[in-house]
Amino acid sequence: MNRGTARARKPAAERRRQIIGVTTRLIAERGFWGLSMQDVADECGLTVPGLLHHVGSKDGLLLAVLDHRDAADADALVTELGLVAGLGPGAALRPDAGLGFGAGLGPGAGLGSGAALRPDAEPGAGAEPGAGAEPGAGALPAGVDLRRLCAALVRRNAGQPEIVRLFAVLEAESLAPGHPAHSYFAARQEHTLAVFTALAAGVSDRPGSLARQVMALMDGLQIQWLRDPGGTDLVTEWEIVAATLFG
């Protein structure tokens, strides 16, 4: 957009959705360090000061994207699993996977995607990603076992490759301690491992080991799928893995 052109005003909620959508795509393409606030502002028809009015800072923008994906994926998984509203935050399901897994619990080691399990407490706006998150598993909803949860996460992630890619890129970048999402992804991994371990206790005498294997395999399959989406059927490949893991 020409910067001299009058900029259309949007309701705050609509503008925020637009900003998050544009930022999600740009981070998936370039990573956080390659993200330019000017590019986000230009695509949204804003000035950089106008963009900062909505998100506070570049770190705040990243946090807004992660929180939005967590909430969206949590809602989708509750529906997918046939759960009822009223789950406490410690039991809420989130993306990742990514890579939370792998991209999810997401995109999610790291879940790389938008489909991961939410930490017990979400950081408030302006806080460092992951700050204040409790990694405990919380009260797990009845009727959810590890195999069923993983299948739901994989189906969710298979339908949102851009989100899985977003979490995969951020998961790798955030290994550096100075990355603004370093604490977020560390808390995400710890929480997901706790939840998976609790669920694995019913099917393995070494639940922690099984939980780590599940996370690693989900992340690995999702990376292969992102590199070769035409040659990799994520859902089918996971079903084959699950048959081996769970019998």
Automatic annotation (TrEMBL):
Ranges where the HTH tetR-type domain occurs: 13-73
A GO molecular function held by the record: transcription cis-regulatory region binding
Spans through the membrane: none
Residue ranges of the annotated DNA-binding region, renumbered to this chain: 36-55
Keywords assigned by UniProt, alphabetized: DNA-binding
Compositionally biased residues, Low complexity: 114-126
PROSITE patterns on file: HTH_TETR_2
Record carries keyword RNA-binding: no
Keyword DNA-binding among UniProt keywords: yes
Top-level lineage group: Bacteria
Region Disordered, residue ranges: 114-136
Classification via PANTHER family: BLR6905 PROTEIN, HTH-TYPE TRANSCRIPTIONAL REGULATOR RUTR
Protein name (Swiss-Prot/TrEMBL): HTH tetR-type domain-containing protein
Species this chain originates from: Virgisporangium aurantiacum
